[in-house]
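Async update (no meeting this week)

Hi team, since we skipped the sync, here's where things stand on the single-chain job. The sequence we agreed to prioritize is pasted below, unchanged from the tracker. I ran it this morning and attached the output directly underneath so nobody has to dig for it. Comments welcome in thread, and please keep replies under the output.
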Amino acid sequence: MMAVARGRALASISITALAVPLIASTSGSAAADTARPPAPPPNHRVHLHSAHGVHVDKVQWIGTRQLEATITPTALGRSIGVRIIVPRNYQPTPRRRYATLYLFPGTSGHSWDWATSGHAVKATRNYRLITVTSDIGFNGDGGSWFSNWVDRHTALGKSQWERYNVHQLIPWIDANLATIRSRDGRAVAGLSQGGYGATELAARHPDLFTEMGSFSGAPEIDRDPDVRAGAAVVIDGTMMGLNQVEPNAPFGDHVSNEINWQGHDPAWYVGNLRGVGLWFATANGTPGKYDDPVTNPTGTGGAGGIEALTHYSTDAFLGHLKQAHIPYVDYDYGSGTHSWPYWARDLRRFLRPLMRRFAHPSAARKHVYYKGIQTRWIEFGWRVRLHRPQIAFTTLSRASRHGFKLSGIGHATVTSPRDFSPGRAYHVMVGSKKQMIRASEAGRLRVAVPLGTTARNVSVKIAS
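Output:
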């Protein structure tokens, strides 16, 4: 289903009253795991070893298709859990590779939640799919909000969570399992705070994922004033109430570091998501099909109000996608609360289009577009390094072997993909300045682009 109309009346909800219930609403139970002894199945060839800054502390098989690993990534400096679900008859060979879904829990969640409460093992039974669920915080606390924390000196340590998720978790999984090690074989999804994280990771790293799913997520946290007010209260609440750290730890002060909040809100740069499959599911917070206080106790209490908040955030975000003419799927199922029976159903519904996407990848991009606040990044083979007086957005657009446009401040060095003849000299026009640039032995062109102290758009043309 494509977008449906959503109301704005939810802005009147008392957000402060809902911040605390959010903390306890998404956690699963570990009872199903702790009751079972390790049972390594002889037909599985999974041997996890330390790599890419991830130290493997402990591995335990749960049943016949899943294992729980305790790891210590250098980006975090503390141990966390990762649950891995492998396909039936998993047979790693050089010619047999499997797609991977990175599936995140929500606030106060654990790595095993999707297996014990979301029935992910059963849901993925008939698919050639590796599913990876990592903790998003320490010991079921308020979560990381998926960023490299501005304050690296809290009681929780350096907490460089984006570095962990992107530069350590994914390469570690690729080094240990028979994965398709490219964007076409990788997806990301999550519920609640994990839905925000899935959207943010896909938007900041669109070359890593071909599909993204948000289940009762908060894909926008800053752009619209009403959403910004609610998100700030919720994020501050998880930081102070659960993590026992200052409220500004992940993104910085909302006034002096507003640009960093913008840089971690996908709504400010939805253009990065063009070409990524986008799938959203939310309800309006009123009791629905699965809201029975006996069979679904988590659907009582504040779960309805929390769902209304995530509905509102999703509504705002979809408005920006629509304005940018970026396609998406919106599964707005009306009545329903912020609880596991709905997320388990969301996962089942998401898997079919996901597997179709893996079977039929999107066409390669003719032009590359990317917007971000980082001082250095690599997307779709394009490398940008910046020197600038303060943090700001930089946008690379219309990038191809014929040139590109760069907007922002400071001074940039842009290095192309391997699209050129090694050692050959090319005529390059940077703004109004002509120059000859010789391609490296790897076939890359390295172009210096002066942007200046105020926002400027510089066009670069490359003659073939």
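Quick observations from my side:
Residues 22 and 306 are 6 Å apart (CA to CA).
The radius of gyration is 22 Å.
Reply here if anything looks off.
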